[in-house]
Amino acid sequence: MKATSLLEKQHRKVESLFKQLESGRAEPALVLAELANELAAHMAIEQETFYPAVRQIKEDLILESYEEHAIAELALKRLLSTSPEDSAFKARVTTLKELIQHHVEEEEEELFPAVEKVVGEERLTELGRSMKAEFEERLAEGYEALLPPGYKKTSADKASHASPRNGAARA
Ligand SMILES: [Fe+2]
Ligand SMILES: [Fe+2]
Questions:
Q1: What is the pLDDT of residues 89-143, one digit of tens each?
Q2: What are the CA-CA distances from residue 164 to residues 20, 123, 127, 160 (Å)?
Q3: 106 alpha carbon to ligand 2 midpoint, in Å?
Q4: What is the dihedral of CA 69, 71, 77, 78, to 10 degrees?
Q5: What's the domain range around 82?
Q6: 170 assigned to some structural domain
Q7: How far apart are the CA of 171 and the centre of ligand 1, in A?
Q8: How many angstroms is it from 142 CA to the middle of ligand 2?
Q9: Is residue 20 part of a domain?
């Protein structure tokens, strides 16, 4: 599977978890934990592998993406620290969902088409294969291992500072 198709598939999964969370039919704490695991693992593989690989293609958009991940991660942490019985719970679910929606739209409508124009299908499939394996590992680690504690630092900050400027050479 192409890296971009893999990421799109993960976006759909996260969207379906938001729907479940909003429906109120499933146990909120369980759905939230699954959502946090999926989201943290997805952001990790984008930050650590996909974004550095394609950074040169749309650098402004990639830098913006790291910022959007950082803000989404803070919103996720606020939600994780909120009891489903708390009156702020629903508002925090909606806020996180809207942040993610906006970010996913930019990825799928601007970033991925630009990447698919430049990076060949074979290379994108190869990248997708390694990202899928990386995702399974991150998912198994769980969100608590992936999200730095506190509100000062996000995993996006760690990843964007760790990536060399010429990381795009790997694309
Ligand atoms: Fe992203
Ligand atoms: Fe994404």
A1: 999 999 999 999 999 999 999 999 999 999 999 999 999 999 999 999 999 999 9
A2: 39, 21, 18, 8
A3: 9
A4: -150
A5: 3-159
A6: no
A7: 17
A8: 17
A9: yes
